[in-house]
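Input structure tokens:
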């Protein structure tokens, strides 16, 4: 993980961004190749390579640690509190929970094909890779089983609710508790999509509607990790904290792309010869 010192914006001791003293600095070794091929496939080549990197460096580490914890590890510290079991199961909220998996393709689709958009996508993906590695280390060092699935009344589920619960339980063991990567990933992707949609809002009011729907879904997703018994309240709180700190380290780098221009930014980062 590479960072550069962030001094801009640290105006007062009470500003939230004063808590972050680092900014994301893109890795030249990871992005030099994809950047050189960015014009291929009608400008879609970099998007495709980002997708592959996401599978290899985000999805694989998550599911690997999830299975390792399930098969070989025991809970080191249990973050469960009484409120976690007092919160009711809300069957239909498995839908906003499962909709996380649309955030990933939506980010790739919404990313502009311009060089600025491509550079921002690369920075965003690197942040996702770094926070995933950080959280996976916690999952292995301080594993915690989320043992609340017994509260689900399977007889009360309708057809699609039953199918979604079965899919989630089959694909995702009840480990990898805190920080919740469901929250970390969704927040970072929502912030990135918000950057792009906000620029287009002047073109059409549909983009403003999209942003409203996006953030309503994110709030529902935050609630859903509790009401589907997939996570503890502590997982939610720590997920939001990690996500916000990661965004605060990412946003200055995104701003730098706009200020310098993508070509100068790429040269500075060592993406060009």
């Amino acid at each position: 993980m590479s960072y550069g010192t962030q001094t801009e914006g640290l105006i007062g001791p009470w500003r939230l961004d004063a808590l972050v003293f680092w900014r994301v600095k893109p890795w030249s070794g990871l992005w030099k190749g994809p950047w050189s091929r960015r014009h291929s496939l009608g400008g879609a080549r970099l998007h495709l390579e980002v997708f592959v990197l996401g599978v290899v460096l985000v999805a694989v580490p998550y599911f690997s640690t999830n299975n390792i914890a399930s098969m070989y590890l025991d809970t080191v510290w249990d973050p469960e509190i009484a409120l976690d079991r007092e919160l009711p199961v809300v069957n239909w909220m498995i839908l906003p929970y499962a909709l996380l998996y649309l955030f990933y393709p939506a980010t790739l689709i919404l990313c502009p094909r311009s060089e600025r958009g491509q550079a921002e996508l690369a920075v965003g993906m690197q942040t996702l890779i770094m926070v995933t590695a950080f959280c996976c280390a916690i999952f292995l060092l301080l594993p915690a089983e989320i043992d609340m699935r017994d509260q689900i009344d399977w007889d009360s589920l309708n057809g699609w609710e039953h199918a979604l619960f079965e899919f989630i339980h089959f694909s995702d063991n009840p480990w990898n508790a805190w920080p919740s990567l469901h929250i970390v990933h969704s927040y970072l992707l929502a912030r990135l999509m918000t950057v792009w949609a906000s620029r287009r809002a002047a073109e059409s009011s549909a983009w403003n509607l999209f942003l409203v729907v996006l953030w309503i879904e994110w709030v529902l997703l935050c609630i859903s990790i509790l009401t589907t018994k997939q996570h503890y309240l502590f997982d939610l709180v720590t997920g939001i904290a990690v996500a916000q700190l990661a965004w605060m380290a990412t946003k200055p780098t995104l701003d730098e792309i706009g200020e310098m221009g993508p070509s100068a930014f790429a040269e500075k980062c060592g993406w060009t010869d």
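Strands lie at 3-5, 22-24. The radius of gyration is 20 Å.
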